Amino acid sequence: MIQGLLGLMTALTLLVTTYGDAAAQKGTGAPILSGPLAKLDIKPAQIDTPRGTAKGTLTVAMHFALDPGWLDPLEHITAVTMQMYDYLVHDAMIKPMPYGFVTYGLAEQAELSADFRRAAFRLRPGLKFHDGQPLTTADVKWTYENFKGAYAKLFHDKLEHVQIVDDRTIVFHFKEPFIDFIDLYNGGVSGIGWIVPKHYYEKVGRDGFKAKPIGAGPYKLVSQQAGVQMTFEAFDEYWRRTPATKTIVVKGVRDLAARMAGLQTGELDLAFGMTGKLLARVMADPNLRWDPNFTGPWWLMFPGYNDQGSPFRDKRVRQAVSLAINRQFLVKQETQGIGKPWGNWISPENRDALQGQEAPVPEYNLEKAKQLMAQAGFPDGFEVEYTPFPPYFDMAERITTDLRAIGIRGKMQTLEGPAFRAKIGQGRKGYPGNRNIVQNIDPRAGGSKANIAVYAVCDSPSSFVCDPQIEALWKKHQASLDLAERERLVKSIQKIILDEHYFVPIYWNPFVHAVGPRVLPEGKAVSKYWDTLNAPYPWPWEIWEVKADR
Amino acid sequence: MKKYVLVRAFYSLITLWLLVTVVFAMVRLTGDPVAMKAEAGADPAYVAQLKHDWGLDQPLHRQYLSFIGNLLRGNFGHSFEKSLPVRDIYFERLPNSLKLGFAAFMISIVLGVPFGMLSALKVNSWWDRGGKLLALFGLSMPGFFVGLVLMIVFGIVLGWLPVLGKGRSALVAADPSTWMTFWFRDWSYLIMPAFALGWYFSGAMLRITRSGMLDVLGSDYIKLVRLKGVPERMVVAKHAFKNSMIPVLTFAGLNLLIMVNVAVVIEVIFNWPGVGQLLYDGLSNRDFPMVQGVVLMQGVMIVILNFTIDVLYGYVDPRIRLSR
C-alpha cells in the first residue's frame, strides 16, 4: 500500500517536473506585444533536472594580466575577454550557448514587433542575484539606461522609452525601426543584455562593483587580487543548473612557458593561448589534451592603399601579395598543420560570412605574383612597414619572407598588444605613409555586418577600406528592413573586398587551449567545452567538470 | 646636527617633487591612453566618456594641479587599466615584492659575501679562480634563463617545487594575524624566484666583496696590525672584514631596492604578483596613474635610503655635516 502511494507520488512529481521544464524550455507564454511580430530564431534554454552537486577546483590561466573592469558589464566594450567573466558572474537575457547562437537566458520569452519598433521580454520566474535579492525588470531597465560600453550611443539614441509591465515583463519602445536590436542585445555581442543589480550597483558604486561584483550568473566572485587572480564559487541557486565545479580560480599568467609548466605540474587545469612554439610540446604530452578552438581568420590590410603614390593603389600589387603567401606552409609551421588556409577574413562561424565556393582559398603562385608586380610597374619590388599582430612575430617573419620572394621588403614594426590595438582602433590614421601592411585577426560576433561596419566602411573610426561601391551597398543595407536583402548586401560587400584584394585572408586560426588530467570527461570528449559558436573561450562555465579535490 | 637633518629632509622633498613632475610629463609623451581601451570599432561616445572620466579632457596644468593635490591627500589616482585605486593595488602587491626582494637579497649576500672574501683571502689560488668563475656565471646568466632551468628541473622533472604564484598567504592590513605569518608561509613558492633573482646579484656582490677586501687587506693599518703579531684570523675577522663591508653594504642597499621594485622578468616567469609587473603593465597600457604611483613609491624608497645614509654619514663623520 505504502509502496503504491510512493510510486504514485513519484510519478506525479516526475510529471509535474517534466511539464514545468517543457514549458520553460519552449520559452512561450501569453503574447506580450499586440500586432504582427517579426520571426525570431531564439533557442530554448536547456535546464538540467535533477540538480547535481558542485565539486572540485578548476584553475584557469589567462594569457595576460587580469582586469577588474572585466567584471562590470556596464562598461563592456567589444573585447571578447570580457564575456568570459560575464559568463561566470552575470547572466544575459539572451546569449550564445553550445545549443545556439541566440538562446534564452534570463528571459524565457522575447518578441519583436514586425516594424522593429518594439521589443519585449518576459523574465523566467524566481530569478535571484547572488545576494538573494530578486532580479526584476527594474534591473533590466536600469542596466539598459546605465550601459556605457560598445554600441551604447546607438542603444540610447534609438530608445524612446522603457515600459515596465510587471516584475517579469518589459517592453522597449524605439523611436525608429531597430532591426539590429536582437543581434546587438545578444550577450555574445554587447554587454547591455547582461543584467546587473540596480540596488547593489547604486549602493557600492562603480569601483565597489568592480572590486566585488554581484550578478545572477553561475559563479560568485569571492576574492580577487587585481591583475593576478580571481576566485569564484559556485552559485548553487543558479536557475539553469547547479554548476558542476565548486571553485574556479582564474590566474593571469602571461608567459607561455609558465603556462606550459603550470599545466605539466598540475598547478593549472586549463590554459589559454597555447599556440606557437610550445604547441608541439602540448600535443606530444600524454597528460594534456587540447582543442583547436578555431576563432577568426588572419588577414592582411593595406592602410593608405588609396593614397596617391601608394603601390597598393594598384589592385595587381594587392593580388600579388595574396599570391605570394604560402598558406599551407604557414599553417604547418605556425599551427602544426591544424590551421585551415582560408579565403575570407571573416570567421565562418559569423552569420552571413562567405565560405567554401563563395570564397575559395587563394592560390599560391609566385610566377603569377611576379608577373603582376612587373605589370604594375614594380619589377624590383619596394619597401614596406609590416605591423604584425602581437605576439605572433614568428608568423610575421614567415610572411615577410614570402613577400620578399616578389621583391616586397617588409620592415617589422613590433608593438605591445595594447599599443597595437590602439593603432588598429584608429584605422588608416594609425599608420602614416602609404606603404604599410598590417596583419590582423578579429573574431568579433554580431554577424559579418559587424566586421564590415568596423573595418570596411568610410565613416568607421577604424576603417581600412573606403570604396564608393561598398558605401552604396552599405547605405542600402542600413536602410533596409528586409532581412534577406540585408544578407545579400553583406555578402556582396564581402565579395568586393575579396575580389579587389582589399583584405588578403591567410588562414583560419586555431587558438589552442590545453587542459590537464583533472578535467572531466576523459579523452577528447573535453572538446564539448568549446561548442559555443563564435566563442574564443570555453563558456558556459557551469558545465565544466573536474575531479573532486583531494 | 638638527639643521643638517632638516636640510637633508628639504632636499629629499625637492627631489620627490621633481621626480613626480618629470614622471607626470614623461608618461604623457607616450601617447593617448584612451586609445588603448578604445579598440577597433569603439563607440566614439564611449571614448569621449573615458577621456572625461579619466580627467584627460582637462588642460595639462589642471591635470597637474589635480594630480599634486591628490598626492598630498595620499591619493595616487585611479588605474586606467585595472579600474581600481592605484594605492589599493600597489599596497596589495608591495608585501609580495618585499618578501621576494628580501629573500633574493639574502641569497645574494649568502653566496656573494663568503665567496668574495674567500677569493680575496686566497687570491690567485684555485679558490679565487672558482670565485671569479662563479661571479662570471652570476653576471652572464640572466635571471630568466636561471629561472626557466630551475622551473624545468625542480618544478617539472622532479616535481619538488611549485612553479606559479606565491601561494595562498597574503598580508592583509585589517587582519593582524597575517602580519607575521605572511613572511614565514609558502616558502616552497619563494625558493626558485628568489634564487633566480638573487643569483645575478650574488655575482656582483662577490666581485665587490673581493675587491673591497683586497683593498683593505693591502692598507697600511692592516699591515701594522699584522706587524704587531695579531693572528691572521683576528686580522680578517676583527679589522679587515668590518671595513671592507662599507662599500658592500651601500651597494647591497641599492640592490635590495632594485630587487624589490624592478624584478619584472622574474615576476613574469614565476607569475609572482609583485610591483614590477604593475609598472610593466602600466607602461604597456599607458596607465598614467599606475606608472606615476609606482615610480613615486620607488622614488620614496630611494630617497629614504639616501636620506638615512646621509644622516648616518653625518652622524659618524662630523666633517661631512660641517662641509655641507
Write a structural description.
The complex is a heterodimer of chains A (550) and B (324). Chain A has helices spanning 2-26, 80-89, 137-146, 152-158, 181-185, 198-211, 256-265, 279-284, 315-324, 327-335, 366-375, 393-404, 417-425, 448-455, 468-479, 483-499; strands spanning 55-62, 94-97, 100-104, 107-112, 118-123, 159-164, 169-174, 219-225, 229-234, 245-252, 270-271, 289-291, 294-301, 340-341, 382-387, 408-412, 436-440, 503-510, 513-515, 519-520, 545-546. Chain A has 550 residues and is of the alpha+beta class. In chain A, the strands form 5 sheets. Chain A has a 7-stranded mixed β-sheet, covered by helices on one side. In chain A, a hairpin with a 5-residue loop joins strand 4 (107-112) and strand 5. In chain A, helix 9 packs antiparallel against helix 11 (366-375). Chain A is globular and about 70 Å long. Residues 1-27 of chain A have low confidence and may be disordered. The radius of gyration of chain B is 24 Å and the shape is globular. Chain B starts with a helix and ends with a helix. The model of chain B has no long low-confidence stretch (mean pLDDT 88). Chains A and B meet through helix 4, helix 6, helix 7, helix 13 and helix 14 of A and helix 2, helix 3, helix 5, helix 7 and helix 13 of B.
